[in-house]
Please model this.
Amino acid sequence: MRLFLDCEFTQLSAAAKLISLALVAEDGREFYVELLDTWREEDCSKFVVGIVLPQLWGGNYSLPMVEARMSLLEFLTSFSNEVEIVTDAPEYDWELFCELAYEDGRWPRNVRNYPTDATMLAPTSDGEELPHHALLDAKIIAGMFAPVRSRKGLS
Model:
């Protein structure tokens, strides 16, 4: 099962801190979380402050890191088959995903421990401009690479 990953983070640098993370599965299941305690506005680039932060949903989606990790692991283990994580930004999104997915040095058993780089896949549709919201971007990426039968549940 492919899960399409997208993250929003504070800046394009090695000091990037996770703001939000989304996964969209080929079967249409979705996961979205915003982290409350991993970043501050002062950590963010001007782009992130102006474009990303105003799009955050807040409310029930905003969780502290510990609860976000538990929620992510629960979502990942809901899949009975091996899970392949696909991202168009492995140098950032994959690293931030790993930080959230690792628990006490353990990796979820059903998740491959390396990403599939979406830039190496042949899209099944034209690319769209990503709106810089993790869940919306993950849906667009999934729609570009998922089989036609799966895209119906993503609109």
In short: The chain has a mean pLDDT of 89. The helical segments are 46-52, 65-76, 90-101, 134-145, 148-151.
